[in-house]
Structures are given as C-alpha cells and as structure tokens.
Amino acid sequence: MGTRTVEREMLATPVDISLLRALEAEGNLVSACQSLGISRDRGTYRLSRLARLAGGPVVTAQRGGRTPGGTRLNSRGRKVLEGGVGPLGPVAHPGGPGAVRPLRGTWHARPEPHVDLSPSLSLVVGFRAREGERVGLRVDPESILVAKAEFSTSARNVLHGIVTSLRRGPGWETVLGVRVGSTVLSVAVTPSSVHRLRIHPGARLHLYVKATAVRRA
Questions:
Q1: Contact 76, 54 (CB under 8 A)
Q2: Residue 59 sits in which domain range?
C-alpha cells in the first residue's frame, strides 16, 4: 500500500470564529446564537463539528442551579479563537471520504479577478495570480450557502446547480454533490436543512459563494 497523504483544509470558518467570540461575550449559547441571527441547533452543530476537528470539546457547559448555567470557552476553544480562520489540523485523505478535491482553472484579472473553470463556469476570487495562469482552487463545502430561490446577498458568486448525490460527511453534516455545468461541487449542510429544503438527487439549487471562500490550492 502506498503512503496516505493527509490534507489540511480551512476548517475554522468565519461563522465558527464569530460564534466563539459571541460565546466569550455572552457566556450562553442561546444568547450567542441570537446575537448572530442563527438557530441554537446550528450553533450546537458548529460546536460539535469544531470539537471533532480540534480533538475535543471547545466549550464547557454549566447547568443552572444556585448559579446561572452557561456555555463558556475552555482552553481548547480559546486556542481555536486565537488561531482565527484557518486549518485546525489534518482531517482528510485525498481521494477518500470527506476529501475536497482541488479544482483547476485559468486566472484572469478583468472585469474582476476570477478563474474560468470551464466554458460555462467562472468563480470570482480574492487572490492574485498571473494573467492566464493555471491555478488550483478549493472551496470550503461549509462556506457555500444553498437556497431553493434566489435572493440578494453580498456573495459575488451565484451559481445554479442540480443535486447529484447526498452522503454522510465525516461529522454530523450531509455532503451534497451539486453539478454546476460540467463541474461537481461539494456542499455541506445540516440534515435538518436537507429535510426543510426537500433536497434530493435531481433537486435544483442556487449556490452562493463568497469570493474570499475560494482559496488557491
């Protein structure tokens, strides 16, 4: 058997860091989630995912009683918060379950920095390269927002795709394969989102991807 190479991805996302900061300020999961405009279920999911990737719980939960209950960062959580957005550690084997395969395309500067992945798909990006240079890309599956209908957003990339597959991710999430033109993107969503949006193979989805979420591989 050949050597298995371990890959590092951007696993502490901006949402994760915002949640940890809110917990540090609020000391309570419900209040922290309300301050960010997200559900408690989503906050719980983000914390369980971080715990899996960071090697253990990032918060300490305290039950109420004589003193108020709460959810506070522990030493591991503070370390993740101090590290900011970026890799937490080795998590995936290229070609194996959960691996995010790099995409390849051609970088152009105008009308704004973007990478042509195919004749039918381009992604606006936040990094620089040489005009016409072939580059590799990775898009964090956690950073892609999905919807059944279009809406106004700051995301520079609005894509239209068809769901080709659903599978259990390395954590609690469901990983969708979504075909956009001739390219299949991996998108991570919660099981409740699959149910609520009635996502199934063949479903049509709108994908929203921020330029800053498209990283050079």
A1: yes
A2: 7-92
Listed in sequence order, the residues at least 6 apart from 102 whose beta carbon sits closer than 8 Å to its beta carbon are 136, 137, 138, 217
Is residue 184 assigned to a domain?
yes
Question: In 27-132, where does DSSP find H-type helix?
Answer: 29-36, 40-54, 75-83
Structural tokens at position 215: 């990283």
Residue-wise pLDDT for 160-182, tens only, equals: 999 999 988 766 678 899 999 98
Dihedral sign of CA atoms 155, 159, 162, 168 in order: negative
> Of the candidates 92, 127, 142, which is a domain's last residue?
92
Q: What are the pLDDT digits (tens) for 53-85?
A: 788 899 998 765 444 458 889 999 998 888 876
Question: Would you state the pLDDT for residue 171?
Answer: 60
Q: How many CB atoms lie within 10 A of CB 177?
A: 16
The residue ranges of the chain whose pLDDT is under 70 are 1-11, 63-69, 85-101, 170-172
Closest CA to 178 of 148, 211, 215: 148
Tell me, yes or no, whether 119 lies in a domain: yes
